[in-house]
Design a protein that fits this description.
Blueprint (H helix, E strand, L loop, with lengths): L5 H19 L6 H9 L31 E10 L5 E3 L4 E6 L4 E5 L5 E5 L10 E5 L2 E2 L26 E2 L2 E2 L2 E2 L15
Parallel strand pairs: 1-10
Antiparallel strand pairs: 1-2, 1-5, 3-4, 3-6, 6-7, 8-9
InterPro entries: Multihaem_cyt_sf
Protein name: Cytochrome c domain-containing protein
Length: 187
């Protein structure tokens, strides 16, 4: 039997640990994002840019979720209709300001969804500031690119726009808060 030095034993054990983590800890079974995915309602229709409004987009459109394309940031913008109910807010300009200086914008589609693909803003630097239409978010975005992680849809225990102890409420703009650059009328 060949004697093994302390340093060599440490290296062998470290390598074994890395193999173990690689085999079990990084295999797509992270319980935190997996729980979010498991809690999503069933898909309605075919996946498209119009699907799953108000849900945490980066849960699927990320390295973990593996839906293509991967997003740097994404969310849904709403307005109130004539009856006071939430409705999609299409043609709204959503501008994101990164803490390193650059900014990008996206336009909401017919479902109120917007996104910026990760490969179009690979160097996105948190924290972020955001403006949707004429409304600026009062706080910063610290690290989460899915707006719906904080801006949750209403539920039975959280009526209205979704605001509650675990939500800031949905991203809400004024009716008619559209931008010509996004295909809407004058802001």
């Amino acid at each position: 039997m060949v004697p093994v030095s302390h340093g060599r034993r440490f290296a062998v054990l470290s390598f074994a640990f890395v193999l173990g983590v690689g085999a079990f800890g990084c295999n797509g079974n992270d319980p935190v994002p997996q729980e979010v995915l498991d809690d999503l309602p069933a898909e309605q229709g075919s996946p498209s840019a119009l699907h799953r409004p108000g849900q945490p987009c980066l849960s699927c459109h990320s390295t973990y979720g593996a839906a293509a394309p991967a997003f740097a940031i994404a969310g849904t913008v709403y307005k109130e209709n004539a009856m006071g109910a939430l409705a999609a807010a299409p043609n709204v300009k959503v501008e994101i300001f990164d803490s390193a200086g650059p900014s990008r914008f996206a336009c909401t589609n017919a479902a109120g969804n917007f996104y910026i693909e990760k490969d179009k803003w690979a160097d996105l630097t948190f924290p972020l500031k955001v403006r949707a239409g004429q409304r600026s978010m009062n706080s910063i975005i610290g690290r989460e690119g899915s707006c719906a992680s904080c801006h949750k849809l209403p539920s039975d225990d959280r009526p209205g726009n979704g605001a509650g102890h675990d939500s800031a409420g949905v991203v809400l703009v004024d009716d008619g808060d559209t931008d010509p650059i996004c295909g809407g009328g004058a802001p």
